[in-house]
Amino acid sequence: MRNPFSKIEVLERAEPLGRMAAPLRTGIRALPLGRVRDVLRGRWLGHPMHPALVQLPIGSWTSAALLDLRGGHDRSARLLVAVGLTTAVPAALAGAVDFADQRVEQERVGVVHASANVAALALYGASLAARNAGRGGRLLGFAGLTAVTFGGILGGHLAHRQGAGVNHGEDVPYLVDPGWHAVGGPEEFPPGEMVRRTVGDVPVLLLRDSNGTGAVYALADRCCHQAGDLSEGELVDGCVVCPWHGSTFRLADGACVSGPATASQPAFEVRLNDGLVEVRLPDAH
């Protein structure tokens, strides 16, 4: 049986949607959010906040629809619609912050996802106004639930089909064999210069400290946010900054210092053995 939702993939190739996404991305990145931006991204939580926040408005609106179907609970349904509208604001802001750091194909689907949710907000706003005026508002509520459901389907496509918001470093321990792996002689790693090597199927960034200690740091080279090559990024205060979206990771342990990444970067142990630099991933399977 043909998948009825397969046409969603057409959105990924729709260039007009990309042209719509560009000014939105620029505007969202220009918002003076400061540290709140990383809070909305979910760096403190270890994964994006948006999927969790959307449960509040969707749950409220679904409950309101059930009460509308049953009848006789107008006051409770009206309260639930209002709660949904209120909680939709932080959910939408978190989604917007995530949207501004996605790939082109994800952005195109994201434009339609956001449009469906904006339509839902407008419909529920009109529904609440009608309810407050004693003019019903149920049909507007059902229309809003239809719009937000469509938006949720697109959100699922973004997350589970396109990989938006997932940790792209999660599979690294399964791609690296346990134990130590030689990556070259010490002379191959000039102080302060990022060098890329491959361990199994995993590209690894190596850096010899330039402060005189001679310590060598090693991180998985593909950024856990969108798989950008960290070895092509910048070094700032003991951290590496991804050249794609600016995620910043501490070289000493891979900790995420700032987003849009929400997870730590896989970090390797390093040793000098028999004249060779060797690396090991502690949690390799």
Name the helix and strand elements from N-terminus to C-terminus, one letter apiece: HHHHHHHHHEEEEEEEEEE
Q: Which shape, going by the Cα principal axes?
A: elongated
Residue fraction in strands: 15-25%
Task: Compute the number of helices.
Answer: 9
Main sheet makeup: 6 strands, antiparallel
Instruction: Please give the order of strands in the largest beta sheet.
Output: 1-10-9-4-3-2
The low-pLDDT segments are: none
Average pLDDT across residues?
Answer: 94
* Spatial extent as radius of gyration: 24 Å
How many domains? The number is 2
Distance between the termini: 38 Å
How does the helix and strand content classify structurally? alpha+beta
Summarize the structure.
This protein has 285 residues and is α+β, with helices and mostly antiparallel strands. The protein contains nine helices and ten strands.
Structure description:
- The chain has helices spanning 8-12, 15-30, 36-41, 50-53, 55-70, 74-99, 104-132, 138-161, 172-175; strands spanning 181-184, 194-199, 202-208, 216-220, 234-236, 239-241, 248-250, 256-258, 267-273, 276-280.
- It has 285 residues and is an alpha+beta fold.
- It has 2 domains: 8-161; 172-280, Rieske Iron-sulfur Protein.
- A 6-stranded antiparallel beta sheet has the order 1-10-9-4-3-2, with no helix packed on it. Strands 5-6-7-8 form a 4-stranded antiparallel beta sheet, with no helix packed on it.
- Strand 5 and strand 6 form a beta hairpin.
- Helix 7 runs antiparallel to helix 8.
- The model has no long low-confidence stretch (mean pLDDT 94).
